[in-house]
Design goal:
Elements lengths: L2 H15 L6 E5 L11 E7 L17 E7 L2 E7 L10 H14 L3 E10 L9 E9 L27 H13 L4 E8 L8 H9 L4 E3 L3 H9 L3 E11 L11 H25 L1
Parallel strand pairs: 1-4, 1-5, 5-9, 6-7, 7-8
Antiparallel strand pairs: 2-3, 3-4, 5-8, 6-9
Helix pairs in contact: 1-2, 2-5, 3-6
Amino acid sequence: MELFDQLQETVTFIKQHTAFEPKTGIVLGTGLGNLTSEIQVTTRFRYQDLPHFPTSTVDSHQGELILGMLNNHPVVVMAGRFHYYEGYSMQQVTFPIRVMKYLGVEQVFLSNAAGGIHPEFEAGDIALVKDHINLQPSNPLTGSNDERIGPRFPDLLHTYDLSLRSKALTFAKANNIRLHEGVYVCIPGPNLETPAEYRYMNIIGGDLVGMSTVPEVIVARHMDLQVLVLSVVTNKCFPIEELSETTLEGVIEVAALAEPKMTAIIKHLLVKS
């Protein structure tokens, strides 16, 4: 079955169960699932119940697609995402973003837990992604292109929406939230990086490093969606002398502490959008 047909089947299934029409899509990364408690839920779907959806294998990801109101704004939220390192194709990893588009969303907000490779980024800080460097071994647009979905060669010049970033920075400053901007380096994972790799990523202009988000961003732009990405810095990776061993439990703990600040930013942007 072609991708377009899979999308239509999934969207039809969702619309058979709800007439709710979201305007913003939100993707919640590792340790950032508590935002779902703020949603006035209309409908929720387990990923395994949705046609053509993969199932998240990461324990810290809830694995639900949730539709409802957040700050009086209609949203569809991925409580847990898919990763290339789980063994999925890039097309599977990004499939939910395409579903969001066909459900009617106009913009997507993506969050992730990331390592800080800018020397001024500290664990617990939040950073807006202003650009990315893609070191993944595959691309979600590889293969034949369906013009019904998006163009063959999407331009990524204005990938990370400047207006949304400006609003987020203004809000953060007014509310004493430590918010940076930076370049996100996307690697395949699942292992964390070596000291030499951290040094390399800092040299080539990276400020953050993680194992997700960029494939979803590429597909969002392929489908002409506005994009905002918020990274929670969960571990300090540079300078090398300050490195310490990182565990999933530690990442989740730091992300949970920073999450209220990230949620406040997202809720503000929904009011203004």
